[in-house]
């Protein structure tokens, strides 16, 4: 499979004339797409062309309706399917698109590949997360395939699984864009199948068009934000005294041992039952004071009831009590497993935000790698980190950091606070969470530290505002990638989470890596 800047010679429609790639791309319909919003017809699947130059199976990968996950419970994926199929058919009149749905069962059980000989390629549209369907199997047919993410819906599978399909010699390309026209522009290249082009040639054209449609990096000038790192001896001594409680996840002993050996930090595993018991005997006045403070200072309270916010106060007090018991300065909880499993009566999101504002560690999902990253950077630069599920948007050359927990003091305990809204937890609409309206115009450094792999991942971006979508997690910080967004996307590793810190932290992180013999990996 040809990628990047390798020389490609294209055949014209008659199959005997030869043109350069530049000449081909200048003349093909796929590069002449208008950028306006396309109308969506009311008919369920729309009309197909009478004389298609190619046939393409569009595989819509959706989740079960009642599942609390991205983008949210009971998401109407069928409307999105109709929209995508409509714009594809309108924008690609020489291609016949044949819809298929993959949900709740494997590719084999679905029978989607049973009629592989009928089509010239595939578009795999990720509309949600479901472990059952294993969409990757659709990408191994040897036919040109586009994996398309629906932002804030299939992004978890796109970032962590779809990108692993690239660079393996198969004709697979991708698009992750908030602009439907980008998918249409790439899909137009399927018509080359009727002109004698190979799968590799079609996918190379798709890749070239995606790169052409990705805007150049924006102005990198950022607002002034000086950072004074601590002395490295102080940092290492502080880490050696740091203990972080991990609730509801007993595994990963190798990671804990490596963390202790490399960073000096200690993780303390605790069962759900212990936190739940602490919740039942919380100090009512302390819980009420916490709830009142967050309520009084909020820009807006959208969904949660006063009782749900008070529940968050009780959870915060319970977390603090457990931390005090184990002499810990941080806590990370398997919150989704605890809440959905009936172990916990309230989400810890507000409490996590308070801990992070106070210079401690409140970490989501019992993610020890991210909790380690937060604690280490807290010791190094005294700033809180924002754990997120990142989303890629090539139409803006942006990465979007999304989660239902975020600090409101991104510059540290003594720094300015930003506005916030109190929202429900996005996936299921329950409890109380934070929509932190983080400041734009600043350089942020995003990291993930792993002592087992002996690596620290790093990329930087300039914050651009807060994404208003109601899909997925409440806080969604948009940032313009400083570097190569394609490299960032195609080489994703170490799970989905990343931790974002305000400030240019490259130099102190590099010094830390030198001291601890860790490899600093530039993601972008």
List the helices and strands and how they pair.
Layout: E1 9-11, E2 18-20, H1 21-27, E3 54-61, H2 77-91, E4 95-102, H3 107-110, E5 121-126, E6 145-149, H4 155-160, E7 172-176, H5 180-187, H6 199-213, H7 232-240, E8 243-247, H8 253-262, E9 266-270, H9 272-280, H10 284-297, E10 300-301, H11 306-325, E11 330-333, H12 335-340, H13 349-357, E12 361-364, H14 368-381, E13 386-393, E14 398-403, E15 420-425, E16 430-436, E17 443-450, E18 455-466, E19 475-481, H15 485-490, E20 498-502, H16 506-516, E21 519-522
Parallel strand pairs: 3-4, 3-5, 5-6, 6-7, 8-9, 8-11, 10-15, 11-12, 18-21
Antiparallel strand pairs: 1-2, 13-14, 13-20, 14-19, 15-16, 17-18, 17-20, 18-19
What is this entry, summarized?
Helix content is 31%, strand content 23%. It has 16 helices and 21 strands.
Describe the overall structure:
The protein has 524 residues and is of the alpha/beta class. It has 2 domains: 9-213, Rossmann fold (3-Layer(aba) Sandwich); 232-522, L-fucose Isomerase, Chain A, domain 3 (Alpha-Beta Barrel), CATH 3.20.14. 31% of the residues lie in helices and 23% in strands. The protein has helices spanning 21-27, 77-91, 107-110, 155-160, 180-187, 199-213, 232-240, 253-262, 272-280, 284-297, 306-325, 335-340, 349-357, 368-381, 485-490, 506-516; strands at residues 9-11, 18-20, 54-61, 95-102, 121-126, 145-149, 172-176, 243-247, 266-270, 300-301, 330-333, 361-364, 386-393, 398-403, 420-425, 430-436, 443-450, 455-466, 475-481, 498-502, 519-522. The strands form 5 sheets. It has a 6-stranded antiparallel barrel. Strands 4-3-5-6-7 form a 5-stranded parallel beta sheet. Helix 2 links the parallel strand 3 and strand 4. The radius of gyration is 24 Å and the shape is globular.
